[in-house]
Here is the input.
Amino acid sequence: MSGPGVPAATGLTGIIIAAHGRHYLADVDGRKLQCVTRGKKTNIAVGDVVNLKMTSDDQAVIESITERKTLLYRSDQYKSKLLAANLSRLFIVVATEPGFADDLISRSLVAAEAAGIEAHLILNKTDVADLLPKARERLLAYTSLGYPLHEVSARANPEHAVATLMPLLEGESSIFIGQSGMGKSSLINLLVPDADIAVREISAALDTGKHTTTFTRLYSLGEHASIIDSPGFQEFGLYHLSEGMLERAFVEFGPYLGGCKFYNCRHLIEPQCAILTAVAEGKIAKFRHTLYGQLLHESAQTLY
Ligand SMILES: Nc1nc2c(ncn2[C@@H]2O[C@H](COP(=O)(O)OP(=O)(O)OP(=O)(O)O)[C@@H](O)[C@H]2O)c(=O)[nH]1
Ligand SMILES: [Zn+2]
Here is the structure.
């Protein structure tokens, strides 16, 4: 944007690569700038493409956010929290051990569907052979819905893990999420060899304090791919999703929507409900419908 007659201080565009409280780090053509928002705004997410104005050599203020392709949220009763912007793929990392929670997987899938992000599953630690069949069997609940599953072992076969996952990242903006202990960090470190250095740099620039990795960060993989690593979380609240969004975010409901007796059916206790019939006939997994009911309940509890 700079050039003859254009002051260097205007027209900077960057991508937000880390966020910690109200402090952000933007990458502008490889240069890392500390950024703040104007006023008390906190509506910036990692992955946002922002217009910046320099305030000193390595600091800038965020003037505006460019239009987002997607926005991934989570929320509780009191507020919603931006997880990442402009994602095209979401990878849920699970493992043969420790055990994974179906609730968290389904919530992640629902969040991805609601945001228009393609969801994939990664099963790590396939080297733990005795637990592999059970893990595969449990994941059938999701592969049968059409979500792709990729099996890897970060420890026993790192080359295979990289060869499997790297092509899936090409041309995409991805996020890796998972419960603690699944091996998400091990996988990210294979895919982004200098991730540790980047985290230390980001942590220093954001002044997050020693050893803190509790911030979301973005790594670029060449020019056309990026990975966002988010700190593990135990809960994935989806209080922000409306009823209409929820029924559409359960992909297996799709064929039955519109088939209920009442046009405003909530698919909970209504007579002649096509969804409830499908559950009774085993065409929709009971645990998914139960979660749907739970999420519907959550969406009615919002205080914002
Ligand atoms: N057997 C086996 N162990 C693995 C594999 N990948 C990672 N681990 C181990 O699993 C444990 C957790 O791995 P991390 O990479 O720290 O997992 P994480 O999901 O990032 O967990 P947090 O850091 O708690 O969020 C470590 O002890 C790893 O060495 C694998 O493919 N096979
Ligand atoms: Zn219904």
The chain is about 30% helix and 25% strand. The two ends are 40 Å apart (CA to CA).
